[in-house]
Design brief:
Blueprint lengths: L7 E5 L10 E9 L2 E8 L11 E5 L8 H8 L2 E3 L6 E3 L9 E6 L8 E2 L5 H18 L8 E7 L1 H29 L12 E9 L3 H4 L3 H6 L9 H24 L2 H20 L21 H9 L2 H7 L11 H9 L11 H6 L3 E7 L7 H10 L5 H6 L3 E5 L2 E9 L2 E6 L6 H4 L1 H12 L5
Parallel strand pairs: 4-7, 4-9, 9-10, 10-11, 11-14
Antiparallel strand pairs: 1-2, 2-3, 3-7, 3-8, 5-6, 12-13, 13-14
């Protein structure tokens, strides 16, 4: 592909996790110094050429998407102790192909030159998807759905922005080539982006920081903090908001890092001192810094020499989250930047957008996610806000509440924390299958 020089595809077909489906793992080299590791699973059901393709991204920033694979929505889950895996009947490759991607560089098994902003990372993922569709022509007809959680609220809009802008350039180049009678077959291809999904994510910090106190003290679950502590959080919000608006205006480290530090210390920090799980207000933090013991098992499994040989990895030690990448993004103030602003152009282009949130999460809670969804400036804003909430039922049970207008949907998931497919696997599978089929909730 002339448009991406020095690219290379190095692939294995591992016999791990779910040997009943076709798998590919390996490296997509988008340049001489960027090597992205992926693990792909074909759909369990449906024709290969008809199945949609989901790209899954975990957050951090700096955390491997194999958390999603081995803990949440992959075809298997890691076994207790980390020496094997177990079949996951609720995997998202039920009716879709799924790529789990370690990005940006130096996350998980990926390596290369550093990338410390979401927009730069988004351009890299666009290049990677170009190579994937080029290298696996059997999936050329697969519609693309980009999904992520947590810091995916930055990653996913950034990836979609890069794809949209690349597709626009492809259209322009094709028109110019046709007029000149030139062959442009070696240039970039149009990526078939159909939808994005953002789960329990940080997207619009200005709005979302306002709702941390409500989740800590006045949610549908038992309070975690005292009224005095939550009042202190509310008292800090006006300054947090003022600093965040400055970040939104200038979008540089000088404006955004102070906002991140103030809002994080004065608002989030109050909860972090409690010892409770920031990803689930129903639980204490246990096991490790990320509060889930299963993640220790994921680390153990992916560091087994026989697993690494089968996967063909070139990074000897797997670490679930990179401190270096997290620090790099933090020093750029990337966390506080306004990635909700990338959503309206997608909606205008007909891209479907799903925002979903487990309602027991604190750190990217459903109150804040619903609020930014309703405050989003787009032509359908008033109709979306007037649409009201409807019950989402799975079988005979109530699984959550949904609000939708046009190609924009917000879904509250009952009884789930930060990682919806981990806490509510059956309901999460119902969610993704309905979404892929473009069916109503």
């Amino acid at each position: 592909m002339d448009a991406i020089p020095n690219y290379q595809l190095r692939v294995k077909s591992p016999q791990l996790c779910d040997t009943n489906v076709t798998q590919y793992s390996g490296y997509l080299d988008t340049s001489e110094n960027k090597h992205f590791y992926f693990w792909f699973f074909e759909a369990r059901k449906g024709k290969r050429e008809d199945a949609p393709l989901i790209l899954w991204l975990n957050g951090g920033p700096g955390c491997s998407s194999f958390t999603g694979l081995l803990m949440e929505l992959g075809p298997c889950r890691v076994s207790p102790g980390g020496n094997d895996t177990e079949h996951n009947p609720f995997a998202w490759n039920d009716r879709a192909h799924v790529i789990f991607l370690d990005q940006p560089t130096n996350v998980g098994f990926s390596y290369g030159s550093d990338v410390f902003t979401s927009l730069a990372a988004g351009k890299d993922v666009n290049a990677l998807l170009q190579l994937f569709y080029e290298g696996f022509l059997q999936y050329a007809k697969s519609e693309l759905h980009v999904f992520g959680e947590s810091y995916g609220g930055h990653y996913v809009p950034a990836v979609a922005k890069a794809i949209r802008e690349s597709n626009d350039r492809v259209k322009e180049n094709r028109r110019a080539a046709q007029l000149q009678g030139v062959d442009d077959s070696e240039n970039l291809r149009m990526l078939p982006l159909v939808s994005i999904g953002i789960g329990n994510a940080i997207v619009d910090p200005l709005v979302q920081y306002k709702y941390y106190s409500q989740m800590a003290c006045n949610s549908t679950y038992a309070p975690v903090l005292s009224k005095e502590q939550c009042k202190a959080m509310d008292d800090a919000y006006p300054t947090c908001a003022q600093m965040t608006r400055t970040c939104y205006r200038w979008r540089n480290a000088l404006a955004c890092v102070p906002a991140m530090m103030y809002c994080g210390n004065k608002i989030e920090g109050m909860y972090m001192k409690s010892g409770r799980n920031p990803y689930d207000v129903r639980r204490d933090c246990e096991g490790n810094d990320l509060c889930y013991p299963i993640l220790n098992d994921v680390d153990t499994y992916l560091n087994l020499p026989e697993v690494q040989r089968e996967l063909g990895v070139e990074v000897s030690k797997y670490v679930s989250c990179s401190d270096k990448v997290y620090t790099g993004f933090s020093l750029n103030g990337d966390l506080m930047k306004p990635f909700h602003q990338e959503i309206p152009p997608l909606l205008a282009d007909g891209i479907r957008v799903l925002v979903y949130a487990g309602d027991a999460d604190f750190i990217c809670n459903w109150y804040g996610n619903k609020a930014w969804s309703m405050e989003l400036e787009w032509p359908g804003k008033d109709a979306f806000n007037q649409a009201g909430d409807k019950e989402w039922a799975v079988g005979r049970g109530s699984a959550g509440e949904v609000r939708s207008y046009g190609n924009f949907t917000f879904l509250r998931v009952f009884g789930a924390g930060h990682m919806v497919p981990y806490d509510q696997p059956a309901n999460a599978l119902d969610m993704i299958n309905r979404w892929l089929a473009n069916e109503e909730f």
